[in-house]
Design goal:
CATH class of the largest domain: Mainly Beta
CATH architecture of the largest domain: Beta Barrel
Number of domains: 2
Helix content: 10-25%
Strand content: 35-45%
Strand order of the largest sheet: 10-9-13-7-8-12-11
Radius of gyration: 17 Å
Number of strands: 13
Structural class: mainly beta
Largest sheet: 7 strands, antiparallel
Length: about 200
């Protein structure tokens, strides 16, 4: 479980093809001695399991492996050395819940259809897959590339957010441009509400 509050900007050091998919080594500011093998870290949105860790003269690193389903549903298939990633370690009991409850289970890809830079914010508009649009509501929560964000407007399959300078500084959002695909995870409460409504409907 995560909160969508990014705590490190990682950098991909290497990507290696393996029988199950890919193995990726990521540079991090996290102290690798505090990361357990098997721990969960959200990397650009998708939850990954740490399979190796270490430290070299250039700093700390950890490795994760991504299987076929992750490669098919997320932007992980486009990972390459030098790419920056939003990182978040899993939530611990008693920790502050600063964003919203995020599972790290990406539902699909949203495409940036518009970016407008303003003096005190940046406006992003996205197009969501048609099947996910009903779960995105005005003033509701959404996780994009692992970042917990508040939806500004929602109209059909289009929705928008405003990002403040702090968010742009501590995440990869300063890199994002019109036409980019981002990892989308809808609010899990919206998913449960829709499922309950389905069974409550007259049959």
């Amino acid at each position: 479980m995560f909160t969508g509050i990014i705590t490190d900007l990682g950098e991909i050091l290497s990507v290696e093809q393996i029988p199950a998919g890919i193995r990726t080594r990521i540079r991090t500011a996290y102290d690798s001695t505090t990361i357990d093998i098997g721990a969960s870290i959200a990397c650009g949105g998708p939850c990954h399991t740490v399979t190796a860790k270490g430290k070299d003269p250039d700093g700390e690193w950890f490795e994760v492996e991504s299987a076929a389903e992750t490669l098919a549903l997320t932007t992980v298939s486009g990972w390459a050395p030098g790419l920056r990633l939003n990182l978040e370690r899993s939530l611990t009991m008693g920790a502050e819940l600063g964003g919203h409850l995020v599972l790290g289970h990406v539902d699909g890809l949203a495409r940036i259809t518009k970016r407008e830079d303003h003096p005190d914010s940046v406006y992003f508009q996205f197009q969501a897959p048609a099947e996910l649009a009903p779960f995105i509501a005005k003033k509701g929560s959404v996780a994009l590339d692992g970042t917990s964000l508040t939806v500004n407007e929602a109209d059909g399959d289009l929705f928008s957010v405003f990002l403040i300078p702090h968010t742009l500084t501590v995440t990869t959002w300063s890199d994002r441009q019109t036409g980019d695909d981002v990892n989308l995870e809808v609010d899990m409460m919206a998913r449960y509400a829709a499922r309950l409504a389905e069974f409550a409907a007259p049959r």
